[in-house]
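Summary for the funding panel

The consortium committed to producing paired sequence-structure records for every protein in the target list. Below we show the first two records in order, beginning with the earlier of the two.
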Amino acid sequence: MTAPLAKASGQSRSRSEKAAAEREIELDEARDGLLRRAMEADRLLLAVMQCSLSLIGFGFTIYQIFSDAAARTGLARPSPLARLVGLTLLILGLILLSGGLWGRLSIKQDHDARWTRLGLDAGDISHSPVANSPVLVVGGLLFLVAALALAAILFRVADGATLVPWGSGAPRL
């Protein structure tokens, strides 16, 4: 009678070990899938940042080139068209960058929710590439620099004036 009991307990132990091993494999696959998705989101944000940096850089450069040309020729103000084109490119770059950052942050929130739902260790979240993404930090810094460039064009800080709005007829300093 003890032999069947030993055999039954051995089978249940092996079943529980198999279930635990299968659960561990499922968790590893889920963790790997989430990390892959986070890395894909970082690559996408890098591509968005490249495009927005080009737009922001061209916008500011176009404005600055025409401002310098106007100053050299003795004109009081740079061409309004150059200012408009520069502002348009810069604003398009900011819109593109903010959309990319928003998408990346929403993926981060979804990633954290799935991570918790799977029952993974909370300490693992802080070490995941989603939580500590340097791409996200650099994107935020790029947004700040672009916003400062936009303010420099709008308030003519780059021309030497101090916070004079674009449309005002105030004399330049």
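The next record, for a separate protein in the list, is shown here:
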Amino acid sequence: MRRLLFTTLLGIAISASTAFAVDKVWSIPGVINSGGLATVFSCTNGNATPATVIVNLRDNSGTNAANVSSGLAANDAMIDFATQSVAMLSGETVIPGAPTLVSGSAAITATSGVYCTAYVVDSTNNPPSVAWPLTIVSKTKQKGD
């Protein structure tokens, strides 16, 4: 419940395009994985069938910084991807090979009906001592455009 409330308070939710695509659907600048801070990508599958979600981390030059991490989210289920283990979460998928990032970015691709949010959070404390939402860009539109 706390995770749902926390994600709702951060409040960025957008939908993927109608067909699964191998190119990016969302871009997320400001990814951090350093100094006790982690970035979390939290996605919910609003479909009646399982959905694939893929998160790809990039360093500040735009080069792939980690292996692509993918998961299968059951219908109406939530899946969290994190750049490192996060004390307030339970069962998150830690992105394998996530390096230290202080100014990275991410791309998320997903099937239709998947909704995602992203935030930076204190990875060691529960409740976290600091957290903030990241802007999610869908193609060329930001929240508020």
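Regarding this second record: The radius of gyration is 14 Å. The longest strand covers residues 101-110.
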